[in-house]
Amino acid sequence: MTEQAGPKQLVGHAVAAEKAGFAFEVCSDHYSPWLDEQGHAPYAWSVLGAVAQATDRVELMTYVTCPTMRYHPAVVAQKAATVQLLSDNRFTLGLGSGENLNEHVVGEGWPSLDVRHDMLAEAVQIIHGLFDGGHSSYAGEHFRVDSAKLWDLPDSRVPIAVAVSGEESIARFAPVADAMIAVQPEQRLCREWDEHWVGRAEGSARKIGQLPVCWDADRDAAIARAHEQFRWFGGGWKVNAELPGTAGFAGATQFVTPENVASAIPCGPDVEPILKSVREFADAGFTDLALVQIGGEHQDGFFSFAEKELLPALREAV
């Protein structure tokens, strides 16, 4: 999570996670942290390039990149192709419609949701066209591409995953994506995605979720840290996508209590609360789940816990 640690620390975390036995690693792509207490926002793509060289086997993924405002979609396609080459075909391009928090910095305002979805649809089309190889041009309502070509194109096409939250976005993006991204363990999302995705490839579609956890030997300390750094999560994406800065998130979450956070996020030293939350995603139909350990300075203990207790328990239970 790029909002929790500096670039060198993030590369170190990626290496430690691979050694602990994790199968894949996802990277947020933010210009700003959600809250001042998080305190970081290095450039995700530089971090990914370094991680691609520092690791050997874990899959890598953006979770997620907005290819519409800070970045032109043609540039996102170039970045994704480069990371795929650097990682020896371990990369998936996760895309989403973005948040005001990160995209307003370029001074173009913040469009309504329907416009953001229109922009994302055009962006996905442009990226697919460039991944096809050769020169590509495009003229849409929001973007233009003039005879662009990816000169360093990987042999293995970069898979595209798209973040969705409901029926409308699923119907629009499942037919043009390789995988689904969602943060709530809702069975209807998985079911509707498969209904629209069927026929694109053999087998079932990949569905990738996210679960924040806060491991600490002291449960009270874990709850306090989760409240300090992750209370923004409780607003839901309809709110999270609209607020323009850390002050807005601080104000919107001023009445969120540590007890509220502890009821939504597994906190403390025990495996079972995490297993319970993971099962909810598995039962809903998700195929992959990214665990976010809250607190950039509290990773070493978590990786030891994951290697010795959590990952063995997960492999047995799910």
What's this model, at a glance?
By secondary structure, the chain is α/β, with parallel strands linked by helices. The chain has helices spanning 7-20, 44-54, 73-86, 100-103, 113-131, 167-173, 187-197, 219-230, 237-240, 246-252, 258-264, 272-284, 300-317; strands spanning 24-27, 59-62, 91-95, 136-139, 144-148, 160-163, 179-181, 206-213, 288-293.
User: What is the mean pLDDT?
Assistant: 96
Instruction: Spell out the CATH superfamily.
Output: Luciferase-like domain
Largest sheet: 7 strands, parallel
Q: Class by helix and strand content?
A: alpha/beta
Classify the beta-strand content into a percent band: 5-15%
Compute the CA-based radius of gyration.
19 Å
What does this 3D model show about the protein?
The chain is α/β, with parallel strands linked by helices. The chain has a single domain (7-317), classed as TIM Barrel (Alpha-Beta Barrel), CATH 3.20.20. Helices cover 44% and strands 14% of the residues. It has helices at residues 7-20, 44-54, 73-86, 100-103, 113-131, 167-173, 187-197, 219-230, 237-240, 246-252, 258-264, 272-284, 300-317, and strands at residues 24-27, 59-62, 91-95, 136-139, 144-148, 160-163, 179-181, 206-213, 288-293. The strands form two sheets. A seven-stranded parallel β-sheet has the order 1-2-3-6-7-8-9, covered by helices on one side. Strand 1, helix 2 and strand 2 form a beta-alpha-beta unit. Helix 2 (44-54) packs parallel to helix 3 and helix 8 crosses helix 11 (258-264). The protein starts with 6 loop residues before the first helix and ends with a helix.
